[in-house]
Amino acid sequence: MAESLALDLARIQFGFTISFHIIFPAITIGLASYLVVLEGLWLYTRRTLYRDLYHFWSKIFAVNFGMGVVSGLVMAYQFGTNWSFFSEFAGGVTGPLLAYEVLTAFFLEAGFLGVMLFGWNRVGPGLHFFSTVVVAVGTLISAFWILASNSWMQTPQGFQVIDGRVVPTDWLAVIFNPSFPYRLAHMTVAAFLATALFVGASAAWHLLRGRDQPAIRTMFSMAMWMMVAVAPLQALIGDLHGLNTLQHQPAKLAAMEGHWGGEPDRGQGLPLLLFGWPDMEAETTHWALGVPRLGSLIVTHSWDGTIPGLKDFPAEDRPNAAVVFWSFRVMVGLGLLMILLGALSVLQRWRGRLYHSPGLLRFALVMGPAGLVAILAGWYTTEIGRQPWVVYGLMRTSEAVSPHASGTLALSLGLFVVVYLFVFGAGVAYMLRLVRKGPVTDEGREQGDGGPGHQRHAMRPLSAVRETFDDDGRA
Amino acid sequence: MGIDLPLLWALIIGFGVMMYVLMDGFDLGIGILYPFIPDKHHRDVAMNTVAPVWDGNETWLVLGGAGLLAAFPLVYSVVLTALYIPLMLMLLGLIFRGIAFEFRFKARERERHIWDKAFIGGSFTATFFQGVVLGAYVSGLPVRDGAYTGAPLDWLAPFPLFTGAALVCAYALLGSTWLIMKTEGALQARMVALTRPLAWALLASIMVVSLWTPLRDPAIAARWFSFPNLLWFSPVPLLVAAGWVALLRALRRGRQVAPFVLTLFLMGLGYAGLAISGWPHILPPDIDLWQAAAPPQSLGFALVGALFIIPIILAYTAFAYYVFRGKVRPGDSGYHS
């Protein structure tokens, strides 16, 4: 009993720290690429509006990046502090992948971030743009490695177990494991979507307050085009990811669908449950409300296809379907709202009311956090859905946990909760304050010519976020 | 197999950790020195000297963690289990220190003191517990069948607490000499005045550790004081003495860069001294680096990347420092414009 409490605490602590963490890299990935586009457009068109937007978003990027760094540092150590037996068992695979992430991504981002944020007046425009591009590429490389590692834990291959630990035998098979391409595409696109929703909501907020400026219009327009192009693409990728899950982690898919099976196949296919409450004890889904055959159509792409049900797996190998069923529905529901937002934006754009439709603007505003919520819901689905395994089919989470007393874990969990709420609460408040302030016209106009290291001005204090607010929040 | 993969990995991780100690050492040191820099503009300048580089400096710590997991999973899992509490406190300290960089400049006037305190408290906590971790690790972590067998509070002992305090002095010295190099005027004069007692404290710390470790552990005494090791290793203490004297002289002569370089040199020597004492145990007192190593397939795969990429990292890190070279001055305002 004490052991299962310690396990639960270790899982809650890991879930808590990684849930906070994932928000920041998601926005980092999206904003870094957005900044590349903005700076590229500035250099190409020389329209100052793009430069103003670049400066505006780079400040928000800086705060967000800082929070990603410190919350990520914790993650690099949580594998060992909380899951020491997992680290010993699988470190031969996950360690090198993490090492590659540090070597090829973290250093790259950190090395060029300083130039990107503080070097506007210290290096030439070309070199500055190069730094922005390198930071963005670094964020994508980072996603590549960490998702390779996570996907290997979901669909492991390319290894042997020798003397009680994993020995990699084929690194290409390890990295390009079956679920990796789908997870990488799904998460990267999710990061772009979440960022576009954040950018779109920021613009909508200003437009609703009558700050109808060209820079803000541009922001809103770009974000809405992203919705149009990327939200449906994400649905397609998600569908393919689901087929992949059916093939490799059928118990997870059964939990996502709240499907218990066990009854004879009457050729009626699988309904798509819109509502229900999977009950792990009673082995059924209460109050199930479904659309006949739609489940078959979606998960098997056929009229009467069926999938293994949870009853086809021993009780000790089943994930908690109540959580997975609902987290999956939250994600999909938000995804559908994103597609709707994109469609409405096309309609209003066509009617010439893109920037003046209060309904659309309010919808975009409330959808601001939707991308991040969908990302969290998606990760809960895939991570709780692969339980009870930490390495699918190989090592159970209960075998991975470090031998800490529950008191120690409770104390450190309490500390993390207090510190994270305070620190990241303040950080998000600062980000929103910057958003509220809006882009400043003609910021950064003094960029001149010259090579690296040529100082163009008396040197200035260097903080990416130079804004100071007086008491009513206006700079 | 001609290549000793575990040995190469031990060297890479050792190098990474040393880079971390030297580089994040001076930014943590600035946080530790903040209480001695009361003036707001001086605090701005001090923080601005490291704002563009601190993140890269901290990345060496992530490399240390990832490198250990990749090359010596046993060490990673045992050290992180055994030293769970001090490591968690260190991480929490690093969180407060890290966010202070961005938040402090964003805060309203009346909020700024919160992030000043976060910067001070975070830097101090992170450094102290890093020192505790170091001391506890050097003291040895008992292991049986791949699991830590000590108690969760074993680190709460005189030697780790002493190394914690010693590291606070050492990082403060790195910070003060860095600021001598990067600033001028009143702030620089203040740093010169602080550097002298800190240099004495570092010397005293090195001497105490140099006496304490061999007294605690006969194997370490034998390593240093048996013949012919005595001859081989005697340059280490001699160079420490010479470097320390040179540091004080550089201060007297008002040198700008030399104090920082000499402090780096002293820290490097102290680090080498600990490595000599511990060799070849990667998990003192019993487990050597070949026993703890990951499978050769893991070591080899990660090594290819490390050997190619670390030189590139060093090159662009140097470039970033070059871009932000020179003195940082107060009074200017406005970022990007």
From TrEMBL, chain A:
The chain crosses the membrane at residues 20-44, 56-77, 97-120, 127-148, 184-208, 220-237, 323-347, 359-380, 409-432. InterPro entries: Cyt-d_ubiquinol_oxidase_su_1. It is a multi-pass membrane protein. It is found in: Cell inner membrane; Cell membrane. Residues 441-475 are annotated as: Disordered. Its main location: membrane. Keywords: Cell membrane, Electron transport, Heme, Iron, Membrane, Metal-binding, Transmembrane, Transmembrane helix, Transport. It comes from the Bacteria. Belongs to the cytochrome ubiquinol oxidase subunit 1 family. PANTHER family: CYTOCHROME BD MENAQUINOL OXIDASE SUBUNIT I-RELATED (PTHR30365:SF14), CYTOCHROME D UBIQUINOL OXIDASE (PTHR30365). This is Cytochrome ubiquinol oxidase subunit I. It comes from Alloalcanivorax gelatiniphagus.
UniProtKB/TrEMBL annotation, chain B:
InterPro entries: Cyt-d_oxidase_su2. The chain crosses the membrane at residues 7-37, 74-97, 118-139, 159-181, 193-212, 232-251, 258-279, 299-324. This is Cytochrome d ubiquinol oxidase subunit II. Belongs to the cytochrome ubiquinol oxidase subunit 2 family. It is found in: Cell membrane. Pfam families: Cyt_bd_oxida_II. It comes from Alloalcanivorax gelatiniphagus. The gene is cydB. Keywords: Cell membrane, Membrane, Transmembrane, Transmembrane helix.
